[in-house]
């Protein structure tokens, strides 16, 4: 197989796998009664962005968009793919073949900037959930979730390295 195609496939699998690990984490939190953002609301926001509206007072109060749940899930996994590609671009393709925890974990932690500084303000929750009833709790939950994503990057890369030729 062409090495570029091989590495691209690995990056895609790492991104999908890490995002799935994050989703298992979120599902577990939900089972424990810890609420989290609905990806349908992410889809609603993206649908409004496509229409030129970036900022909302509260995304849940904004008009629904067609297929927002599917759109939100697609964006969620697309971002996971993009983050995996960025990790490999920063770490080098050698990381795919000999994955180590620290680059993946550090990268996962850094990705928490996306919800805290972009998504939450744009959706009406303020920077770092400052406009919510429990900003610190929400920030810690985001931090934990993105840390889990970083662990997912590493674990998925290790599994792929051990199972794919």
TrEMBL record:
Q: Which UniProt keywords apply?
A: Membrane, Transmembrane, Transmembrane helix
Ranges annotated as spanning the membrane: 12-29, 70-89, 101-123, 143-160
Q: Read off the InterPro entries from this record.
A: DUF2938
What protein name does the entry list?
DUF2938 domain-containing protein
| Species, as recorded | Piscinibacter gummiphilus
């Amino acid at each position: 197989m062409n090495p570029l195609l091989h590495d691209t496939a690995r990056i895609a699998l790492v991104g999908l796998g890490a995002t799935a690990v994050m989703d298992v984490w979120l599902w577990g939190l939900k089972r424990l009664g810890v609420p989290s953002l609905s990806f349908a609301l992410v889809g609603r926001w993206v649908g409004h962005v496509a229409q030129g509206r970036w900022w909302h007072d509260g995304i849940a109060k904004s008009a629904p968009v067609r297929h927002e749940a599917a759109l939100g899930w697609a964006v969620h996994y697309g971002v996971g793919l993009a983050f995996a590609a960025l990790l490999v671009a920063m770490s080098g393709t050698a990381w795919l073949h000999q994955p180590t925890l620290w680059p993946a974990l550090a990268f996962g932690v850094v990705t928490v900037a996306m919800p805290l500084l972009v998504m939450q303000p744009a959706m009406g929750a303020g920077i770092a959930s400052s406009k919510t009833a429990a900003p610190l709790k929400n920030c810690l939950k985001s931090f934990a979730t993105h840390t889990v994503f970083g662990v997912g990057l590493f674990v998925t890369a290790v599994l792929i390295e051990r199972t794919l030729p």
